[in-house]
Amino acid sequence: MKDHRSLVRQAVALLDTFQPEEGSLQAFVDHASKALRDLEDSEQNFVLEVISGCVEHRKLLDVVVNTFYHRTGKGFLQADRNQFMVICFLATFLLEDLGLRCFSKIVKSLDAVKMHKFLSFFFNVNNLSTWIQGEWSQIYDAPYVEKSWIAPLLRWQPEVEGIITQLASKAAGGIQPKKASQKITEPKEFALTKPKPRTLPKPEPIPQQERHRPVPASTYQLPTERDVLEKVKQKNRQQANKVLLDANTQQFHCVNPEKSQRTKKLLSQIQEERDAQLQFNSLFSSGTPSSHKTDSPPIRLNTTAILREGALYNRQVEEETRRMVALLSGGGEPSSFLRWQNEVLQQDLQEEVALLDRRRIEGLISHEEAALARVRVMESNQQRALLKREETAELMRRYAEKRLQEEQEMRELVEQVVEGHKNAKEAKAKLWAYKQRIAEEVSEQSRHLLRQALERAQADLARRLELISQIRAMESVPVIRHKFVDDTETAGHALLGEMSLAELRERLAVLREAQSREQEEKKERLQVEKQNRQQWLQGQLDFISQQRAALGEEAKRKQLEKKTRQKPYLGASDDQQLLELQRKLEDKRQERQRHRQAEDARAKAYGQAAAQALLGWNQQRQWSEEHHWEELESSLERQVQCEASASGSLSLFRGPEKPPSSFPRPIKGSG
Questions:
Q1: Keyword annotations for this protein (predicted)?
Q2: Exposed/middle/buried for 115, CB within 10 Å: 0-12, 13-18, 19+?
Q3: Is 603 a domain residue?
Q4: H, E, C per residue of 101-129
């Protein structure tokens, strides 16, 4: 039988090869049993029990091993993880079956330092009774965990403490204590009839709560629309600042936002004309439309309209007939009820007209109030604009002073540059000579290259002319494209319905004649049906015209009766509420007119002040420009005099030469 160290190592190696996502536990156990064929049955069963138990109780073992790596075993490798899991499984589930002696051999056969650290951590009474029990109780039932696992571990803890002490001395390199004398084995009778105690059933795992769906990453990310809006706002702000800067620097070039006197006069005339068209005291804005006009031309109806109107009049005739029959049989006519109903409707209509007039006047009053509010807002804006103009004028004055200072500095810089140009004359002359020499070399090379390109082009052209002559010679050969066909012969494909072209033409001609005769017969039949239908429609039209005439007479009679019964209507002018609203509207209009006149006077005064300020600013600008141009002309004269004196002194030593402003370029196409 192999030692326990090799069996534990085999179990650890098999656990290292296990991948939960690739296969099931049963498949892994079958694969492990094939790998352990050379072992005995007891050894094979021990290894399989260890690896299957480690896989089944992986959650419990992970709680202990993960915490051990986090707290105490930070210096150990992750490759020893399965080794610690095997020891934890043996101590928790198989310590009763193995016994303390066998468990001590297994532990001592492994690394002493690692086992001392792990067993000291695992068999700590404080750890077992606190967080280990709490974590295991979240996976399985708390009473079962305390009774089956925590209580046995606490019972074995004092005896395991001796093993931990021996491992500590072994890890420190000290002398191991002398083993106690073994007791003499006392033989006992076999209890053959004693049954093996029933193994405890595997506890059912507590159903875990379904893992909640993680919050999407987009929840904690700002939407892209906000960035786009911020960019648009930034861009609009930049444009607004640019427009404000342009308006401040070019104040008097902006368009006058105020309307002219002529425009205001036209707008007031249009408003007065619209107000004059309003009629508050009239009975109706327009007369009631007539129900029947005898002098209007007749409307041309299509077939659908004729049928629809004929059916309508037929129903009306039937209803009138039924009503007459009912009257003859002794029935009554609801004429008094209809008269009362018309009076009630007329009264409701009058109230509705008064309500509409009142609402319209209230709308006009709200419009006038809105106009007055706009006038007040414009006045406040004008005050703010006046303050802004004063600030802008101050900024313009500072800007003008700064420009004068910059022009003075630029003038001094120009004088320094002129002094530097005097020293650069000789360098320019040398540079001109060097460039002229380079230009001559480049022109010579370009002539040589052009000559070679011309020779290649001539050879290519000769080759193309030769190809063109060959193609034209081949195209000049005549080609026979005619094929002689006999119309009376068949194609010779041996088909049942095969016929010649002449026979096909004759059959098609006969077929066309039959189709034309059939079309003529169909046309005559349709014409007869159309005539019959037109006669029937004409009869319907006559009936409709009679019904219309009768309805027109009836409508005239009812209109006359209505006029005789109509009571005088009290107009909206008698309504005190409408009069009060109308007076309020007139007050609002007068107040708005006063604001408009005050605004016109203020705009006129502001225009005169702006014209005077513009005139003064133009004069100041003209004076500054003239002064600036005079200074530029004087500086230019000094520069020309200095250059003339310098060129005169240079020509005395070098003689006349070509100015170095340009050098000859090579001529294209030469050579």
A1: Coiled coil
A2: buried
A3: no
A4: HHHHHHHHCCCHHHHHHHHHHHCCHHHHH
7-50 tens-digit pLDDT = 778 888 888 787 766 666 677 777 777 777 777 778 788 888 88
Residue 441 counted as domain residue: no
Closest residue by Cα to residue 548 from 297, 308, 313: 313
Q: Which two tokens stand for residue 188?
A: 């006992």
Per-residue pLDDT reduced to its tens digit, 108-138: 888 888 889 998 888 888 888 889 889 988 9
CA distance 123 to 168: 14
* 516 or 221, higher pLDDT: 516
Q: Which domain holds residue 157?
A: 4-172
Asked if the structure places residue 222 within a domain, the reply is no
Cα 383 to Cα 377, 397, 599, 606: the distances in Å are: 10, 22, 12, 12
Burial of 495 (0-12, 13-18, 19+ CB in 10 A): exposed
Residue 234 counted as domain residue: no
Number of folded domains that form the chain: 1
Q: Is the pTM of this model over 0.85?
A: no
Using an 8 Å Cβ cutoff, are 197 and 137 in contact? no
d(CA 46, CA 86): 12
* Tokens found for residue 441: 């070399």
Dihedral, CA of residue 238, residue 240, residue 244 and residue 250, to nearest 10: 90
